[in-house]
Design goal:
The protein is mainly β. The chain has 3 helices and 28 strands.
């Protein structure tokens, strides 16, 4: 059951079976007052993933200007990257390339894009985080379990492309928690890792102040002292990233080797996308476990009298102000990635849980 107003979407979910004494799990997505007008002005739609309940969400606008929310289920979906006609998405043990079927202004039920999972690769559970497309159109992804950059293989789980110099062996040990990837001129340029560790699961001892930014071409560590960094992106001549453990969005001054904060976001940040003069940052509520406890983010939230949020923050790069937001409440508490679709108003996608995928046919001409 769902209810919608112009900027609130609410639904009950079946992700967790409630007991007789529990209410059915619910999900509510709301926005700031001007968020929908901003989507209309910028002529974009958004997508984000939550591996917590295995959902891919699309946010757009109905013809009436009301919020449109479309979701599909994919087990542990995480990394996203867009292509000229679609996007790639990682899941528990596969990566999928989605292609848009609509051409020449076609629509269906008000949707102007229909993304179909066209090609899939079985990688095994290698914990794929950030993904990107290189200058040759090839997928590059962060293979977090094996502490390397990799691409898909026609015959194996993956093909390694690069690893940090301090990683002595490619092993399924998540040694440094390599997670973020920035491309520049169509090539892998920078990556983030939680710690420069070469032992199994060793990154956990480096959560506070042990995070690093590595130049892929030179193998040099160009930024140190970060706290669980994520999502580096090269945009408008700067290398932006999320210092997730402190709640700070900012950029790397590569000459001085310093991180330059631009805005504080009230949550654990993962997922960064850009459109025009704006950054879109994904927020999660920190889990109450050893991985997320004791971070500087905790003290920063207390000092500001704030509770951690889950959703998307829109930041004006010119001022550092958070000008719009999307809030996700209920059963979803963690996001991983967020992307934008320029020129798209209301996207939808096919999944594997319903029969539509059997009946949607297309012919290459």
């Amino acid at each position: 059951m769902s209810s919608r107003t112009d900027n609130v979407f609410a639904m009950q979910t079946a992700e967790t079976a409630p007991t007789a004494s529990q209410a059915a799990p619910y999900l509510e997505i709301s926005t700031s007052r001007q968020m929908l007008s901003w989507l209309d002005e910028q002529k974009i739609a958004l997508a984000f993933t939550t591996y917590q309940i295995g959902k891919l969400f699309f946010l757009g606008l109905k013809s009436s200007g009301e919020l449109s929310v479309f979701e599909r289920t994919f087990n542990r979906c995480m990394g996203l990257c867009t292509t000229p006609n679609g996007f790639w998405m990682s899941s528990l043990y596969q990566v999928w390339r989605f292609e848009n079927l609509f051409t020449n202004g076609e629509t269906q039920d008000g949707h102007d894009r229909l993304f179909v999972p066209q090609t899939g690769y079985t990688t095994g559970d290698i914990d794929i985080h950030d993904m990107a497309i290189d200058q040759d159109g090839k997928l590059v992804f962060v293979n977090t379990l094996f502490s390397c950059l990799a691409t898909v293989s026609e015959t194996h789980s993956f093909k390694p492309l690069w690893q940090p110099t301090f990683i002595s062996k490619l092993a399924a040990e998540d040694r440094c928690h390599l997670n973020g990837l920035a491309m520049r001129d169509g090539k892998p340029a920078y990556v983030t890792a939680v710690g420069a560790s070469d032992v199994a699961d060793g990154w956990r001892e480096h959560r506070v102040g042990g995070g690093i930014l590595i130049d892929v071409q030179s193998n040099a560590v160009v930024l140190q002292g970060l706290s669980m960094p994520h999502s580096p992106r090269w945009y408008q001549g700067k290398l932006w990233l999320l210092n997730s453990g402190t709640g700070e969005f900012g950029y790397a001054d590569l000459e001085s080797g310093r991180f330059m904060p631009v805005a504080f976001c009230p949550g654990y940040m993962r997922g960064l996308s850009f459109h025009g003069d704006f950054a879109l940052v994904g927020l999660s509520r920190p889990r109450h476990n050893k991985t997320f406890s004791g971070l500087p983010l905790d003290d920063a939230l207390k000092a500001k009298g704030a509770e951690p949020r889950c959703g998307i923050q829109v930041i004006d790069l010119r001022s550092g102000d958070i000008v719009h937001w999307v809030r996700v409440e209920g059963v979803v508490e963690e996001l991983y990635d967020v992307v934008t679709f320029p020129g798209v108003r209301r996207p939808m996608a096919l999944g594997f849980k319903t029969d539509e995928i059997r009946r949607v046919l297309s012919l290459e001409t």
